[in-house]
Amino acid sequence: MTDGAVFQGRKRNLSQHKQIRKALGLNVQNYSEVSEDSSLQLFDSCSFLNDMPLAFCIIELVFDAEGHGVDFVFRYCNDEMAVVEGVPVSEMLNHSFYEVFENGDKKWLVTYADVALNGNKHILQDYSPEIDKTLTIYCFQPASGYCACVLIPS
Q: Shortest CA distance to 100 belongs to which of 62, 137, 73, 61?
């Protein structure tokens, strides 16, 4: 990381990553499948945010065999996400970020993984060329293995 901080997830060895992924249900190969656990209750409880005037989403991190974050899947998006991202919610839900935005930048993956794995909170502010907007993104962990984001265009 540019500030010299250590990304805690990288301290773990491959065996620990595999155990964590299994415990979190992150070994799912089909992005449209979600494990039948408390995660589903999390998404159901978000329905009251559908009409919130701020873009909000919950993403699930996808890791490779070595335990590196390689992608994320949109598991919940409110209606304002479609406005900010310029993509219908139906095209984001249960799809990989890199399916939705084929030329998407991977610069935020480390931060999202830190939130999902370690529960740290982050505020990101950067230009997103995928949507041609500068965004402030507030990230927090709603459940282990997930990262929730509130997106505010500048």
A: 73
Pairwise pLDDT comparison (73 vs 14), residue with the higher score: 73
* pLDDT tens sequence across 30-54: 444 554 444 555 556 566 677 889 9
d(CA 14, CA 99) in angstroms, rounded, equals 27
* pTM of the predicted model as reported, rounded to 2 decimal places: 0.69
State the distance between the two ends of the chain, measured CA to CA, in whole angstroms.
25
User: What is the residue type of 108?
Assistant: W
Question: Which residues are CB-neighbours of 128 under 8 A, at least 6 positions away?
Answer: 105, 134, 135
List b or e across 86-95, with b for residues whose CB sees 16 or more CB atoms inside 10 angstroms: ebebeebbbb
Radius of gyration of the chain (CA): 15
